[in-house]
């Protein structure tokens, strides 16, 4: 197997070229810690989405979300914003207070509460607004590299990624990640890897990263070979599978040898994940409660039983979690077919947009002041 070249994000060398995608409510410091442990510290791990208005106003929840573990280098933070001035203030705050080493901008989120305000995957349709935001971010970032993550467009009739890519290059963005789906697709259907290849050809000046349908290390290798992209961004593929980052290192460095943990090892990882969440939140019970969303992802493919799954989904202490896991047949090997889609998979959604949003891609008058959400996390 052949190793792939390192990825350069400003002064930072990412080897192998793999990035943890920001996911709301998922990629907090505990989950990033788990993934980094399995990768041996290799790769780039981005925080969950932070709203620029909430950051500037020092929202209590937001200030916790931007806390990085002392071992995280570089510290990567993803920002969401629709107002250039607010985005610029947030970036300047990050620089002045040394809150992060790398800034990623979210132009890919497809959820209605974001797109209905003209944010996320809706925003690149307004070309002048996109340019203004990127300009403010790069100008205020100084020496910090600024990257962006986006989708193909709003729907098949409103494709934006090639125009957005060219604007990004002109405004000094360091790298672009493309999810090969439109906002209307959400996470349904099959990601369009050909679009990733076209973007790479369209903006050869900067690295292009591919995102979408990477469920295994072999998928990552195949994406890089087929598209020519400079790196991969992995999101839903690591839900309940933080050890995927060990496989990604092996696959992209060409060493081979993937992990197939049995249920006993998976149970140990589940307890560690819940423990880290409790330590981060400062409350064991709240940590276990927050962990509940991960249970089904970790146990996918194993023979557990519906009644036990229900019990595990209402645990509220580490002792209770350990006790219930101990009742399982922990000698089960890694199940065949356990890889594959996890998380939301719905597609063909109507994208909720501000009134008149699609009338003119160059008219930005419809962006209102309340488009900046005052809370973070997606």
UniProtKB/TrEMBL annotation:
Alphabetically sorted, this entry's keywords are: Flavoprotein, FMN, NADP, Oxidoreductase, RNA-binding, tRNA processing, tRNA-binding
SUPFAM superfamilies (UniProt xref): FMN-linked oxidoreductases
Is Protein biosynthesis found in the keyword set? Answer: no
Record's catalysed reaction(s): a 5,6-dihydrouridine in tRNA + NADP(+) = a uridine in tRNA + NADPH + H(+); a 5,6-dihydrouridine in tRNA + NAD(+) = a uridine in tRNA + NADH + H(+)
Keyword Glycoprotein belongs to the record: no
Pfam families xref list: Dus
Q: What is its EC number?
A: 1.3.1.-
Q: What is this protein called?
A: tRNA-dihydrouridine synthase
Give cofactor(s), names only.
Answer: FMN
Family, per entry = Belongs to the dus family.
Instruction: Indicate the segments forming the DUS-like FMN-binding domain, all copies.
Output: 20-324
Q: Which InterPro entries match?
A: Aldolase_TIM (IPR013785), DUS-like_FMN-bd (IPR035587), DUS_fam (IPR001269), DusB-like (IPR004652), tRNA-dHydroUridine_Synthase_C (IPR024036), tRNA_hU_synthase_CS (IPR018517)
- State the protein's purpose: Catalyzes the synthesis of 5,6-dihydrouridine (D), a modified base found in the D-loop of most tRNAs, via the reduction of the C5-C6 double bond in target uridines.
């Amino acid at each position: 197997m052949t190793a792939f070249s390192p990825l350069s994000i400003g002064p930072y060398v990412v080897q192998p070229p793999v990035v943890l995608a920001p996911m709301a409510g998922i990629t907090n410091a505990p989950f990033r810690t788990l993934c980094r442990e399995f990768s041996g510290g290799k790769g780039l791990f981005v925080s969950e989405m932070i709203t620029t208005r909430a950051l500037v106003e020092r929202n209590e929840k937001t200030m916790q979300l931007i806390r990085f573990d002392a071992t995280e280098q570089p510290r990567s933070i993803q920002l969401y914003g629709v107002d250039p001035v607010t985005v610029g203030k947030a970036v300047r705050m990050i620089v002045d207070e040394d809150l992060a080493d790398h800034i990623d901008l979210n132009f890919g989120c497809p959820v209605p509460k974001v797109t209905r305000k003209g944010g996320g995957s809706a925003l690149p349709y307004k070309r002048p607004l996109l340019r203004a935001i990127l300009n403010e971010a790069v100008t205020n970032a100084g020496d910090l590299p600024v990257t962006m993550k986006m989708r193909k467009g709003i729907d098949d009739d409103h494709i934006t990624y090639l125009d957005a890519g060219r604007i990004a290059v002109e405004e000094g963005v360091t790298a672009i990640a493309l999810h090969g789906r439109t906002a209307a697709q959400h996470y349904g259907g099959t990601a369009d890897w050909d679009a990733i290849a076209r973007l790479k050809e369209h903006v050869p000046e900067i690295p292009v990263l591919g995102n979408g349908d990477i469920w295994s290390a072999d998928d990552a290798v195949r994406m890089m070979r087929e598209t020519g992209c400079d790196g991969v961004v992995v999101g839903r593929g690591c839900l309940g599978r933080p050890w995927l980052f060990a496989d990604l290192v092996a696959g992209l460095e060409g060493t081979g040898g993937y992990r197939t943990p049995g249920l006993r090892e998976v149970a140990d990882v589940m307890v560690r994940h819940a423990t880290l969440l409790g330590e981060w939140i400062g409350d064991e019970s709240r940590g276990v409660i927050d962990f509940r969303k991960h249970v089904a992802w970790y146990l996918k493919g194993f023979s557990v039983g519906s009644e036990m799954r229900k019990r595990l989904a209402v645990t509220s202490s580490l002792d209770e979690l350990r006790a219930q896991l101990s009742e399982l047949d922990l000698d089960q090997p890694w199940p065949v077919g356990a890889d594959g889609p996890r998380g939301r998979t719905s597609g063909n959604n109507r994208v909720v947009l501000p009134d008149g949003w699609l009338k003119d891609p160059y008219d930005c008058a419809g962006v209102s002041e309340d488009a900046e959400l005052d809370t973070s996390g997606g």
